[in-house]
Design goal:
single chain, alpha+beta, Nucleotidyltransferase, domain 5, two-stranded antiparallel sheet, 6 helices
Length: about 240
């Protein structure tokens, strides 16, 4: 849908028409751009649940990016059941067993969701979707947080450069995915990236996980000028439902 306000701005800015064309291309299955270097995990899955529905996005094959999604509606408001079905739909067409998989969700994972993902990982190993030594990580990406990141320049403090990361502990980090001009005085809110579950607690690398979140925010295809605050894994899953 194109709003009247968007059409009204066509004469004022050629960027509007460019963004409309970009959106149409992406919505018909096109991939306008990809990352120069592939991410470490074979696959990233974004999840969102609520209101009796669940949505998931899947990003796979970074050199020839495959991006798809699935939704499930459950009138009984048992989102976990919906999530199990839609994940099965997403993974059934993958061509080879995965070695490393990361799950993203905006906000908190419920304990029932984490328990389900643990069970599904074991089931997928039996089915040959995952390798026996597959590493999986469940990552919470939270937009509401108290800490802020500031950049010191001379005697003044400014908002951080986009891509700035601050480690809070071994399993939690802040990452700035948007940038504001120096004249913008309000401190921007970074994303909180936190490991909620993994089968590899000893060697999990929160710096790499935060880096992946940042680069996935650069893959936003809604605008050719501005990037998204959120990685497209969770951004599009949230918008679907």
């Amino acid at each position: 849908m194109i709003n009247f306000t968007t059409c009204r701005n066509l004469r004022r800015s050629p960027v509007v028409l460019y963004n409309i064309a970009l959106n149409l291309y992406a919505k018909t299955g096109g991939v306008p751009w990809i990352l120069a270097d592939p991410l470490e995990p074979d696959t990233v899955i974004g999840l969102d649940t609520g209101g009796g529905a669940a949505a998931a996005t899947l990003l796979h094959n970074w050199k020839n990016l495959e991006f798809t999604w699935s939704t499930e509606v459950n009138p009984s408001v048992r989102e976990v059941v919906s999530m199990q079905t839609l994940l099965a739909n997403l993974l059934e067409n993958l061509s080879k067993p995965l070695h490393k998989i990361v799950f993203h969700k905006e906000g908190l994972f419920h304990e029932t969701e984490i328990q389900l993902l643990r069970k599904l990982v074991e089931d997928w190993k039996t089915q040959g979707i995952l390798q026996e030594d597959t590493e999986y990580t469940v990552l919470e990406i939270k937009k509401r947080c108290v800490p802020r990141i500031l950049r010191e320049q001379g005697a003044k403090y400014y908002n951080p450069a986009k891509g700035t990361c601050l480690l809070l502990d071994k399993y939690k980090a802040l990452v700035a995915t948007i940038e504001r001009p120096l004249t913008y005085t309000a401190p921007v809110k970074p994303l909180v990236v936190e490991v909620a579950d993994t089968n590899n607690w000893d060697t999990v690398n929160i710096t790499q996980l935060a880096k992946q979140v940042y680069w996935l925010s650069e893959l936003h295809w809604g605008s050719g000028i501005f990037t998204s605050k959120h990685p497209i894994s969770t951004l599009y899953a949230h918008r679907i439902i």
